[in-house]
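Ligand-bound model needed. nicotinamide-adenine-dinucleotide.
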Amino acid sequence: MNALAFETTQHFIHQAFAALELDPTYEVLLTTPNREVRVELPIKMDDGRLGHFIGYRIQHDNSRGPYKGGIRYHPLVDVDEVRSLASLMTWKTALLDIPFGGAKGGIQVDSTKLSEGEKERLTRRFTERIHHVIGPTTDIPAPDMYTDAKVMAWIFDEYSRRHGFAPGVVTGKPVDLHGSLGRDSATGRGCVFAIREVLGHDDRELAGTRFVIQGFGNVGSWAARLLHELGAKVIAVSDVNGGVFHGDGLDIPALQKHVQETRTVVDFPGSEPVSNTDLLTLECDVLMPAALGHVITKDNAHELRTAYVLEGANGPTTAEADDILRSRGITCVPDIFANAGG
Ligand code: NAD
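Prediction:
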């Protein structure tokens, strides 16, 4: 599955090179990551067993500045997925014209099954194994799926033990540990700015626009909250456990309270259940995938009932699906623009 992630990213780069009639030599340079680090991560589990995990840091390109990109903890993390995500970061920082390159990292792990202590030991082991290739002027990690401000604080601390006080080694730290105000909401907020501009270009406005959002983590929940504040109708959202729907728009502040209490959107009072598969084909104005990659494929792209796809997630649309969306007149706001707010 994840070989597809890298192939998809390479395919889009190839299309861009062909459209711009650029020298193919540069295409080889820009489709080959500069450095790939794979590390073995043994840790002591709470029950005394030895846990064994594999982590990656892939540095795609740094011609415009230090490598930059998130760290993901997920069972599907592998070298191809990390390669794809690292490459997307290069294009994202270039598109926004900020002085960074592109990198990504991850550990193949279901972190929801780890205790807090196991997660901390795993993060510190990972930092110990990659500390020589990251740093405030070389490569700066950030949160991604199933990593958050606390994970960034552990990396900052573990890195500083070896290199001296270095809060600049990661972004997305807690605000009271040298983090930046607004970072938590930045990616979701960026998605809202992106769709506001695209709608405005089509003489449409956010107020009253109906959104369906897959994923209610950092990106999806912040986007939902801000869209709700701006008068948009978020009619369905989901998380890994399933989705909820209300045709007149969900009460997002109440839903957030429900998620704080129950840790899932499922069974939100007053909503109807909807599966993650069916959610993608609900009738709406804007469909926002904000969880995993490759959820819009040739198998469901014909069934989508939306005018816009807002790519909150990285790589949610396969190359074949992208062609289908274009042929159907559905505007796809690409990840490297839509989710670059962080
Ligand atoms: P997160 O871990 O905070 O939240 C992930 C959400 O996705 C959770 O609600 C989870 O339950 C849900 N989910 C997981 N598996 C799912 C599945 N199979 N079906 C439906 N929902 C599922 O992650 P995040 O930081 O919000 O990242 C989400 C996406 O946005 C990822 O693709 C990530 O690469 C991308 N992204 C994140 C940032 C950032 O700043 N956090 C920046 C750019 C892009």
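Residues 143-146, 187, 214-220, 238-240, 276, 290-292, 312-314, 339, 342 surround nicotinamide-adenine-dinucleotide (CB under 6 Å).
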